[in-house]
Amino acid sequence: MTKIKLWIVSKEDYLLLLAGAFLALVLRLLLRDYVSEDAEHFYLPWFDLMRSNGGFAALKIDFSNYSPLNLYFLLVSILLKDNFGVSRILAIKLIGIGFDFVAAFFVLKLIDLRFKQRIVGILGGLTYLFLPTIFLNSGLWAQTDSTYTAFLFATVYGLLRKRYTLAMAAFGLAFAFKLQAIFLAPLLFLLIILGEIPLKSLLAAPAALFVTLLPAWAAGRPLGNLLGLYFGQMGHFPDLTMNAPNFYAFLDYSVSPEFSLAGIVLAAGVLLVCVAAVYKLKPKMTPEMLINLATLSVLITPYILPKMHERYFYPAEGLSLILAFYRPRTSLAPVLLQVVAICTYHFYFFGDVLVPLPILAMIMLIPLGIVGFDFYRQIDAQRV
Fold it and tell me: What average pLDDT score do residues 23-30 get?
């Protein structure tokens, strides 16, 4: 495996990286004034409440179902507003925008592990920054899916470098940002039962998560309340799918109350069967296979879980891009994921249905099939 260096190999590579990153930032800043419904109903009111209640002192108030780690960065946004005159909406968007570049850094590093030429990793990182769903998520929507996704990429990078304690700490931080980090859990469970991840390294994940709770606890918010935040999120949305192109797009919404918990149990069962099937094959965990299984993990999980949003395929969009660099035969997968996501984003922003959701859910089976078949090819090659 190629050892990663911390410097750019040539002046041309350095200039390309700077120019591409600058344009990616400009692109996001051009979208800075748009206020989405989520920003209007959630982020801006939270921003104002924290600002009017003493900033850090406001952490003791139970006003948001977002984790404390997200709110700490909202405090940074308040500082940008108060000290540098940045508008409220831009100050909020800078959280997601900043983590876009952190995620792109790990995309570069992950691709760097595969290629000796630094330029390939740079192109991969820049491609990630210009994926429509990535810059629309942070620059237009004011969402922060880049936060937990950046740490999921760091988790995969740590796994590939066999730095398991750091990988699990990164996963703990991803989970501390958002519950959706759990989409990578099937891969981690598989690696644990295969003996790839030492059991002692697992402690790093809850330790990292607990550390992120300490400031909010110190501010006066009860620890029990902090530990139970994600349980409250599970019942926050009533519909089986929140515009997510997954299995539940085929069901009648009238069965939502009865099927919601059953859907979670069903998803857990399906994922357990998938993990058991891969375990039985006893694969030799090459870097290519690990990237493949990571992509499968974050693709299958939101596809079979109820109450998913369209944004929850965000980690899969990035990992499928990385996989395409490792396994070019899978290149259609990230393209299709972008097409489907753009259709669902269009419905959120404009209310128009470009393609009916059940059709988009059927299209999602294609990248799932592409990545799954590529895994089968790798297993088959190991048998030769």
Answer: 98
Using alpha carbons, list the distances in angstroms from residue 202 to 164, 165, 187.
8, 7, 14
Maximum alpha-carbon separation in the chain: 66
User: What distance, in Å, lies between the first and last C-alpha atoms of the chain?
Assistant: 22
Q: Cβ–Cβ contacts within 10 Å for residue 35, how many?
A: 15
- Residue for token pair 């030799």: 284
Take residue 221 and report the two structure tokens written for it: 């918010």
Q: What is the pTM of this model?
A: 0.95
Per the CB < 8 A criterion, the answer to whether 229 and 69 are in contact is: no
Q: Name the residue among 177, 155, 180, 152 with its Cα closest to residue 165.
A: 155
User: Which tens digits make up the pLDDT trace of 320-360?
Assistant: 999 999 999 999 999 999 999 999 999 999 999 999 999 99
Q: Which of 81, 7, 9 is nearest to 50 (CA)?
A: 81
CA–CA separation, 308 and 336 (whole Å): 19
Q: What average pLDDT does this structure show over 165-192?
A: 98
The answer to whether residues 146 and 180 touch, using CB atoms and an 8 Å cutoff, is: no
Ordered DSSP codes for 51-100: HHTTGGGGGGS---SS-HHHHHHHHHHHHHHHHH---HHHHHHHHHHHHH
The secondary structure element, H or E, covering residue 301 is: helix 287-304
CB atoms within 10 A of CB 26: 9
Residue 144 has phi, psi (to 5 degrees) of: -130, 40
Calpha distance 178→188 (Å, rounded) = 17
Cβ 95 vs Cβ 292: under 8 Å: no
